[in-house]
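FW: tagging you since you asked about this chain on Friday. Here's the raw sequence from the shared folder, copied in full. Didn't touch anything.
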Amino acid sequence: MPDGLRVLACVKRVPAPGARITLTPDGQDIDTKNLGFTTSPHEECAVEEAIRLVERHGGSSTVLTLGPREADEQLRYAVSVGVDRAVLLPTDDPDPDAQATARALVAAITAEEEAGGRFDLILFGNESADAGGFQVGIRVARALGRPVVTGIKGIEVDLDGGRVTARRENGDGIEVYQVELPALLGVKEGLNLPRYPTLPGRLRSKKAEVAEHEVVLLAGGQRTLGFTLPVEQVTETTILGTGAEAAPAVVDLLQELGLA
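HL: got it, structure written out here
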């Protein structure tokens, strides 16, 4: 029987959901001065699934990110909820394109595997919460020569059989995929319910060593022209009245809309 499962979760540091986004004056980047950051929601589920799989099958879990040194916060959070090891690929580039990101991740994953053994399963979020490109995980899988399935909301690993069964929803029901390990899966929010860190977990994460790999970002074929913010839609509420006094106004409105 294999000596447990080696699982890698790749995550991204993104603006906290619900934050008001503003752009730099040149329109080339997001102004981050007043933003809070978190892990992309799909990837929070990837981290949780990595922990659960190791709890079930034994082995070890690793979390990896490409980003600024401030992304150390997201890595330590993953450690605080139960991930065994954290790896940072530090870069000053605010958001490298999907090709450059995938190349950097492949180089780091290859180095990690040469040092510690093959990852049986690599988990990505289905897409990042900010760029939403749906590309990086697929590019990494292709470069590593491993099968990939995206949109996943259910995972079962048969470690003895050397395969993983992955489920995803479609409009008509559930699709079931069975692929050989090692494999890569793109998971979606709803796969599980991520846990919260415990006090001992938080203390452990503060002392955890975050490994680093040198990053060489090779420019891809994509180029950012600029960002634009959608026009804010302003809604107004008109109170027609209260009780029976509102009835005539309601009738007038229905007639105006052609519904009466």
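FW: Helices lie at 41-57, 72-80, 98-116, 136-144, 199-207, 247-256.
HL: agreed, and The CA atoms of residues 85 and 170 lie 34 Å apart.
FW: great, closing this out.
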